[in-house]
Amino acid sequence: MQDQLLRNRFAEQLPTSVPSKRTHNNLQEKSKFYKPLPCTHFFGVLCLIVVVFTLVIIIEKQLPAGLKIANEANHPDSFIAERAYRVLRNLTKIGPRTAGSFENEVLAVNILKQEIEGIMKEANDHHVIEMDVQRASGAFNLEFLDGMTNVYQDMQNVVVKVGSRIASPHSLLINCHFDSVVDSPGASDDGASCAVMLEILRVLSKSNRILRHNVIFLFNGGEENFMPASHGFITQHRWAKEVRVFINLEACGAGGREVLFQAGPNHPWILETYSEEVPYPYASSLAQEIFQSGVIPGDTDYRIFRDFGNLSGLDFAWSSNGYVYHTKFDTIEQIPLGSLQRTGDNILALARGMAQGHYIADVDRYKQGNLVFFDFLGAFVVRWTMPIADMINIVSVIFSIYTIYENAKKVQYTDDIKEKQYLRKLLGCTLTALISWILSVFATVIIAALLTAFGRTMSWYARPLWAFFLYVIPTLLVCMATVLLHAKLFNSDLDVSPWAKFQIYYDAYQVIWTVVLFFGILLRIRSSFIAWTWTFFAALGNILKSKLYGRFRDSKWLLLHISVMGLPFVQCFYLMIGALYLFIPIMGRAGAGSHAEFLIAIMVSSLFSMLFSFVVPLVLLVRGVERIFSCLVGLFWISLALLILTPSGFPYSGEPGHLAPQRFMIAHTQRTFRDSTGAVANQSTGYWIADMDINSPHTVDRHVPDMQKANLVTTDCDEYLYCGLPYIVPVLTMIWKTHWLPGPPPTILTAVNMTVIKRENIPGGERVTLKVEGPTHIGVMVSPMEGVELTRWSLKTQYPLAGPKWKGRETYFIYYAYGLNPVPLVFHMDFKVPSDHKGPIMDLAVTSHYLFGKGKASPSLKHLVAQFPQWTAVTYWTATYDSWII
């Protein structure tokens, strides 16, 4: 009796007849096996997806109009982008500003001082402004890349503090760096940030608003030397102790929007202030987890303030157009006025919000907690604390399970499927969905292998649209084909309508995202908000479709499906496009051993297979599905043929408005190897070419004939410490594939000199005191012999930091740099030596790097570099490598 009542209740919800279509037979239409949607509907969905992709990309590139000085009267107390642009132009006119160079230590510092002094003269009397130029020396361990000990001498900082006449013991720190890498004008990295800070300082100092707390502006002159200047400030400057929170401004691209990619640790009020104050938000806890995972080869002063200052703060970076990052193309022309305006408006509003707020006065009180956060299309920030996130996620998991269970009960009366049978089929469909993702990745890997075999790799580098044709379309094809095949072969016993089959696969994808969300809760992953959006809206869609539609549905049902699942689709694509814009340029500097083609294939396929989760099941409802497959397959094959048979897929570009150069790093090198007696055992000279991407170095053979003589470095890595090559930083595990081109001796103006000052016995071992002299940038690599242990040294670090093993032995890398005046590196090392050990106790190598001035490049090096085509970006310098067995 109860079953009959339930059947009657569900029957009442069903339409009494199927909507008629003039083009189809009435008997066909009434059949429950008749697929209800014409293929034009699915093509419409695909066209809508392309439109969404286009609109999101357009939104992602939107910038505000830059304010001009002529209109300043109409915008009082506002950031004026044109003035910041003028400051940036003056700074970049200097050229590359490598730490230790006259350009960085004198010219850049003078420009900053002149700008600051001019601001101080025009400041409102309400404010007190102080300026200080600091020279700092010190050392610290840095667990980044392969690990190093950074030792620095006389690094410069220009520091400004602005506050009210009612002194506050609390300060906000805003940081940028004015030095640049070798050969780069450093417009975006990080001159633009310094120009933005100077304009913010001007606005704050001229304003009638009295600051509740101080704002310290740190213009540091040594970030590219792996952050020694910020370390010198936060550990030694007299104002450092009053800093309560910081804002760090960086770049890994040029122009575009600045992304908030690190926040905290803890102190959720910082992000709350950001969310409430900034007019143009762009932030995500996903970006933070990606960066802190180490998959992006970079680091910022954020780490220094966090680890050595025990501070919390925000880390911003321009991430668009990463092609010009750390190259000669990082010029002011790459930075739109709107980018400066956007960043200036945001940081000015944020600085005011923090300096005027009450949190800074008692930061420990508001310390606990972390936030889950993300912006929606740059319009506003969604954020909640971790306890609230846990509650939302748990409720969503329960909600999802409930809707799936309700579906399992409902199909008993709509399609005569028993509950257990439904759940069993649901499990099979869930596995099928997962298998479809795996197969799509496998298919794209095969495509990547084919492109590698044909020498057509990295076509997507200059033109990311190629990734759509090569990897997105096959991903969709494989996922749809897998679901269709499974439905035909393994669910053929189901005497149900296409709607019921669709519902099972829909629920299967919902199960996957629910499980992902569940494990995100357990593992405390803050980017689980992605799984939450899919889980919650899928469950919501289940409820709405169940209430509004019965067993048979029309095109209105499809509109509802698109409307409900469109929001997580748009948000996830918005996050994905930001990640791809970041990662694709990185592939041009990730090293030849990174297998970039396969990495991008796997990344794109994985992301889009998940993005299409609730698009793929629609194929079960479509008539004439073969037309869809024919069009997509045809589009893929045409694209592949164009790529292989024409030059349209050339990966690089030197066009001024569309720069995507291939990177080369060339060190004109002199190598000297000594035996245990100190005598020279071997010596060679030539050009060391660090392969920055998978196509290096032979893409330029036609333009640079000498490149055909370059040999892959192999056996030297087994024989010599750090391959007997002048690595300026410890990146051997990432940049391990390099080439050596024999050449004439370089011009060495200041030869490196290593002296063993003293060797003495200590309890249980031996102490060795060294003196190393040379140019501004020196590397010291140490590897104790087997059985010998380096226990401590006199450098100002807690302990010697070990790097990658060599011959099964520990290695240690010391990065040493100084300012204008030469200062030798003098230190001792203590070794624990077994009593029965005979002979040498360590291998020692010293590298020297001539990054600027007359000693940077010999005539032969300049001649070699001049041959490179316009679509390349060559970073070059002179270096030496000297080794000893001690």
From TrEMBL:
Return the InterPro entries for the record: ERMP1-like_C, ERMP1_1-A_TM, Fxna-like_M28_dom, M28_fam, Peptidase_M28
Q: Which residues form the Peptidase M28 domain?
A: 157-350
In its UniProt record, which GO terms are filed under biological process? proteolysis
Question: What GO annotations for molecular function exist for this entry?
Answer: metal ion binding; metalloexopeptidase activity
Pfam families registered for this protein in UniProt? ERMP1-TM, ERMP1_C, Peptidase_M28
Q: According to the lineage, what is the superkingdom? A: Eukaryota
GO CC, sorted alphabetically, is: endoplasmic reticulum membrane
Report the residue ranges that make up the Endoplasmic reticulum metallopeptidase 1-like C-terminal domain in this protein. 660-884
The Endoplasmic reticulum metallopeptidase 1/1-A TM domain is annotated at 422-642
Membrane-topology descriptor: Multi-pass membrane protein
The UniProt entry, under CDD domains, shows: M28_Fxna_like (cd03875)
Instruction: Locate the transmembrane regions by residue number.
Output: 39-59, 384-405, 426-453, 465-485, 506-523, 529-545, 557-586, 598-621, 628-650
Principal cellular location given in the protein's record = endoplasmic reticulum
Q: Where in the cell is it found?
A: Endoplasmic reticulum membrane
The record's keywords, sorted A to Z, are: Endoplasmic reticulum, Glycoprotein, Hydrolase, Membrane, Metal-binding, Metalloprotease, Protease, Transmembrane, Transmembrane helix, Zinc
Q: Which cofactor does it need?
A: Zn(2+)
**According to its UniProt record, which protein family does this protein belong to?**
Belongs to the peptidase M28 family.
Name of protein = FXNA-like protease
Q: What is the lineage of its organism?
A: Eukaryota, Metazoa, Ecdysozoa, Arthropoda, Hexapoda
